[in-house]
């Protein structure tokens, strides 16, 4: 099977099982941006609490956060961990977006304090509808286990380029695909995989896989 067809089949297997994921759950563009910082190294449940706290204090905008004091923000986002670092990152990002209304470039985002590839790409895809494929720990895990022609790679940019060059640049597809991979990672493809019943389990497909526990087409 050619790689684009393989990825399409992978996507439709996940979509059929998990359905639409409705990502990113946010009311404003800036809420997505703040969420992308807050979600670093924590669960989404903790991010929801912090977002709620910021909303209650009317602090969830670039204008409000850019001038907020760290001591005000610390207790509001403490639940997300690394709260001192994240406070600084939120303020820096807010200052940037207060000055810049247009879609940022990837390079501009990567220059910001604490913004790496995954955060920058999440902001571009989910806040600014740019066709950039987000690679996270769940994507890397899937790539490592599922027989895709990029499985030896663990490098962010190589994996991102693999998805982008084998899929049409469809923002809706990229948003949904990433969210579905996260769902797969949370439910089945965990650090210790629970392959029984996984939508990618090999018993459904004709090809054998190379090295992966049980998945493949
Ligand atoms: S079959 Fe197992 S290793 Fe393969 S994607 Fe599913 S959970 Fe992960």
Task: Sum this structure up briefly.
With 217 residues, the chain is mainly alpha-helical. The chain has helices spanning 3-18, 29-38, 44-56, 62-66, 70-77, 83-99, 106-110, 117-127, 137-145, 156-166, 171-187. It binds iron/sulfur cluster.
Unreliable residue stretches = 204-212
Main β-sheet description? none
| Category from helices, strands and their pairing | mainly alpha
Helical amount among residues, as a percent range?
A: 55-70%
CA radius of gyration? 18 Å
Note down, in words, how this protein is organized.
There is one protein chain. It is built from eleven helices and no strands. The N and C termini lie close together (9 Å). The chain has 217 residues and is mainly alpha-helical. Helix 1 (3-18) packs across helix 11 (171-187), helix 2 (29-38) crosses helix 3 and helix 2 runs antiparallel to helix 8. The site of iron/sulfur cluster (SF4) has 15 residues, from helix 9. Residues 142, 145-146, 188-189, 193-195, 198, 200-201, 212-215 line the site of iron/sulfur cluster (SF4).
